[in-house]
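ok so I'm stuck.
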Amino acid sequence: MKILTWLEEHNKLSWTLTIIAILTIFIMSQIVFGNINTGSPGTKSFISLAILYHFMAFFCLAFFLTISITKGKLNFKQFTICFLLCVIYALTDEIHQFFVLGRWMDVQDIRVDVLGIGFAQIIYSFHLIKFKKKAKNVNTLLPLKSE
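replied:
not stuck anymore, here's the structure
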């Protein structure tokens, strides 16, 4: 995908998107959700919306952080560092919610966050593997320059 390659090449933008994801998660953690159109806390529709939010928020965070740190290189150590940083942020996010009146810590939120983080890294690693294969095939098909 061209946009991912572009983000890898424009590292400042991928870092900016990472910081926006961090700030969005922090701000959303301070909001107490009451009766909204999708239901009140504890109802099935509200829980589904909360699960979707947690998955997508941490998916975006992990996706942009991984792009920012790896810069398009498939490096297990860097992927692990990104994963751990995102999981630590998920834990601190839940601890932060514990101190917000009307919010609470929830282990299920952390599970969903970790799923979002892992899914983002799997998708990005598939992109890198596919991209590297294509690049290898292209390079092997190019004729050698004769001097």
